[in-house]
Amino acid sequence: MASTPSVTTPLLSPPTQPPVVDLTIDNITRKVVQASSQSGDARLDYLMERLVTHVHDFARETRLSTREWMAAIHFLTQTGQMCSPVRQEFILLSDVFGLSMLVDSIDHPKPPDCTQGSVLGPFHTNDAPHLPIGSSMTTDAAGEPMLALCTVCDSSGRPLSGVKVDIWEADSSGHYDVQYAGRQAPSERCVMTSDVDGGFWFKAIRPVSYPVPDDGPVGRLLELLKRHSHRPAHMHFIFEKQGLDRLVTTLFIRGDQYETSDVVFGVKSNLVVDLERVDEKTAAEYGVLEGTLLLRHKFILASARETEELRDRNAMEAMGRLGLKTKLMDHLPVPDLD
Amino acid sequence: MASTPSVTTPLLSPPTQPPVVDLTIDNITRKVVQASSQSGDARLDYLMERLVTHVHDFARETRLSTREWMAAIHFLTQTGQMCSPVRQEFILLSDVFGLSMLVDSIDHPKPPDCTQGSVLGPFHTNDAPHLPIGSSMTTDAAGEPMLALCTVCDSSGRPLSGVKVDIWEADSSGHYDVQYAGRQAPSERCVMTSDVDGGFWFKAIRPVSYPVPDDGPVGRLLELLKRHSHRPAHMHFIFEKQGLDRLVTTLFIRGDQYETSDVVFGVKSNLVVDLERVDEKTAAEYGVLEGTLLLRHKFILASARETEELRDRNAMEAMGRLGLKTKLMDHLPVPDLD
């Protein structure tokens, strides 16, 4: 595997490939892997070797029928064709099979006590307005007003100023702004920057549970699998600053009926929060009515270096456990051929 | 796995799922499989169990990064969006990774001496004209004329009459009719029915090698992998008749420069044919010029029953070798829970 073709060999000419004739159920995987792992990029070759092996093993272990294969072709085609600038059905597919959570866990492991990550989901946009601290990010008069008082610090508890915080949630009907055909401007989303004390606060509405878009191929699959399509009430956050590991996470409101059955497997205990009510003093301080819902949370962020070290260590340990002889190249495993 | 939910449980209600909170790299697969294998359809549950396991194992064994995952999301989306009524990029993807050949080998195993199968490819259409035996299926004046004299028989050598034969090939420039934007009518394709002696013959052109459509995501992937995108010169056939196993196959012209490196891994030795030249007698008999290229071939077809028995036997043997405790349901493996 992964032998580097001579640079004097013209690219794409037939002789660079070992002969592939008379392939059988038993030898086809080795031959396809040989043909597909000569790019000279050790990481790409390793990804292809693992991909072809798993796809073929799946077909062999299920004795996949032509009819089932064709159903899969149609499903993937429809999934791609459901995607648009405001809808990403393949991310949704990845989410409902737990792949998105798994990849986040692998790529962004958290040191103890740091805020856990969760799924990005398909509704983040890049056009949210940058609002000053204390702003309202809601235009939904039907939503239940909620004040959010948050801080962000590093793993030693030091406040982090100047962190870019991306915040978004569904409206009171359980839809994101991008799900409306007539969307004129961003709503129920904003970007803020933490202050010198690591603080940021904003006005929003109480998150509600909602179904993921279930009128497409992924929704039909969930129905076939007799799985519900709901996410428990939640609010999304992304934290970014030079030197920090980018944190994509979600806070969940405790007590939601879907809290233990999130369709995208995103719930972690330390991301589930209790809502409080604003007292008289806080009401006066932040200019909201007494009794308003209050979300308080402290986010604890790992540095890029902490995450990188943890990821590298986890990777080498896991490769060892799996019995795979690999080394890290740019922090990602490739076969160790020495 | 595969426990059937009580029929009195309302569908899609949260309690039908085991709780999923605090999933980690190590427990997420078991939890997602549990949630995704309660459809009550044992085959679907088994497919999902194997699919989730392989997809997750791929991510764990490669320590898939968020950036790589996102590249895969984009790739799949582009592949879906490249599909149209006349182009199937996902079939092409399956073809270039040998999955199409593997599935055909599993689902349509051939008894000894029967004609082997090969890939369907993305260019079959359902609008080919039904032509009488002896017709020409070409409108390509630039192609080198070729006479094809074929017979079809069963595995005991008995001629098979009334077999529907679907035939298609690329034109002399290496393009199928559907690849032309202005396609008015089918060309270089037809459907014939074998006569009482199992014979069918037609006029066509010499097949040429050509690249698969490489201006899309699959073509870009092949380029990254430093694989050429060519198929050796060939002609496609599908044979269908009640009681016979549907045969999807291809004849390859010996001596092509891509004969041992077909980009879709479709070449089998007993599908590679030598072209002859028409002699004086044959020329007179079939109304072509002496010296015209001649393709002669005898196709030997398995019965539906022969294929089914062989498939079942292969499946049970393979499951045994893999150590999977399965039984066959409608000729497809499902877990044997007894």
Please tell me about this protein's structure.
The structure is a homodimer of 338-residue chains. Chain A has 338 residues and is of the alpha+beta class. The first copy, chain A, folds into two domains: 1-64, no CATH class; 89-302, Aromatic compound dioxygenase (Protocatechuate 3,4-Dioxygenase, subunit A). Helices cover 29% and strands 20% of the residues of chain A. The first copy, chain A, has helices spanning 28-36, 42-62, 66-82, 89-96, 99-107, 217-224, 280-286, 304-322, and strands at residues 145-154, 164-168, 189-193, 199-205, 210-211, 230-231, 234-240, 247-253, 272-273, 276-277, 293-301, 326-329, 332-335. In chain A, the strands form four sheets. The first copy, chain A, has a five-stranded mixed beta sheet, with no helix packed on it. Chain A has a four-stranded mixed beta sheet with strand order 4-1-11-10, with no helix packed on it. Chain A has a two-stranded antiparallel sheet with strand order 5-6. In chain A, a hairpin with a 2-residue loop joins strand 12 (326-329) and strand 13. Chain A is globular, with a radius of gyration of 24 Å. Chain A starts with 27 loop residues before the first helix and ends with a strand. At the A-B interface, helix 1, helix 2, helix 3, helix 4 and helix 5 of A face helix 1, helix 2, helix 3, helix 4 and helix 5 of B. Chains A, B: One of its GO terms (biological process) is catechol-containing compound metabolic process. Chains A, B: Belongs to the intradiol ring-cleavage dioxygenase family. Chains A, B: One of its GO terms (molecular function) is ferric iron binding. Chains A, B: Residues 41-113 form the Catechol dioxygenase N-terminal domain. Chains A, B: Residues 136-281 form the Intradiol ring-cleavage dioxygenases domain.
